[in-house]
Structures are given as C-alpha cells and as structure tokens.
Amino acid sequence: MKFLPYFFLLCCGLWSTISFADEDYIEYRGISSNNRVTLDPVRLSNKELRWLASKKNLVIAVHKSQTATLLHTDSQQQVRGINADYLNLLKRALNIKLTLREYADHQKAMDALAEGEVDIVLSHLVTSPPLNSDIAATKPLIITFPALVTTLHDSMRPLTSPKPVNIARVANYPP
C-alpha cells in the first residue's frame, strides 16, 4: 500500500511521455537574442490589427529544411541565431508573446497552418507559395538582408570590435 503513490507517479510520468511522443513538432520555450537593433514601426492594415488584437500568443511554425543554418537550438529548448533575432524584432514590434514550433518539413508546417494549429509559417513563401488558396501569403513584415558577422572562435556571438573590420560579400548579396 505504501508503494501506491510511487506507482501513481510512475504511471503519470509514462503517460506524459507517451502523449508527447505523438506530436509532430517541438515547441520551444524561449528565443534568445543579442540583437539590440531598433525597428521601424510595422505597418499593418486595420484587418491585420484586429486579427492581431484577438491573439494572446502568436504561434509560429518553422521547419528545419529551410532554417537549419539560421536557427540553432539548445538543450534548454531555447533558440538562437539569425531567425531568433528576426523573431525577437517581430515580438517587440508587435508587442505580443511568441511560441515557436519546429516541424520536420515544410508540408507539416503548412498542414498545421491549414488546421489552425499555428498562426504563421516562417518560410520562403515568395519562392514556395501555399498550394491551398485559403491561405494568404502576406508581404514580409520585416524587410532586411540578414548578416551575421562572427569569428571562427565563437560563431554564435556577434563580432564586436573597436577596430575597423573588413567584411566580404558573396554573390552581390545584398543587392
């Protein structure tokens, strides 16, 4: 009889791991950013402002197939990198809470969007527009050319130096 509470805790623990094993995504608790950039005001239409006001938490889907080099995760379920900086800018500009869900591929993220499980898919919709005509591809909220200048010693920390620095561009980017 004295083992009953331990048995109950074991069953609860097993049940929780089984229920989370069915999920198609990984949900991240935090977005880390060293970005201290100020952003111009985001211009939204009245319809977009009403939609945003109805949200308490904006759920954003990403997928590794397009963001692997721009979104890094750690063991504490935090994300870092250029996309994390972008999302923090978006969070500050819209003054809203963000939840990030990572899907295995683009199609699973788009399926979650179609089902209403997420609000936004962070992807290259300009080059891969949604096949579902009910899903609207909006204009980018933040237009920028991401650049991460780092050192080989620590590629996740932005380079800071009081000395002049030469930076090389590749393939005329940005235009």
TrEMBL record:
Keywords: Signal. Residues 1-21 form the signal peptide. InterPro entries: Solute-binding_3/MltF_N. It comes from the Bacteria. Residues 60-149 form the Solute-binding protein family 3/N-terminal domain. This is Transporter substrate-binding domain-containing protein. The lineage of its organism: Bacteria, Pseudomonadati, Pseudomonadota, Gammaproteobacteria, Enterobacterales.
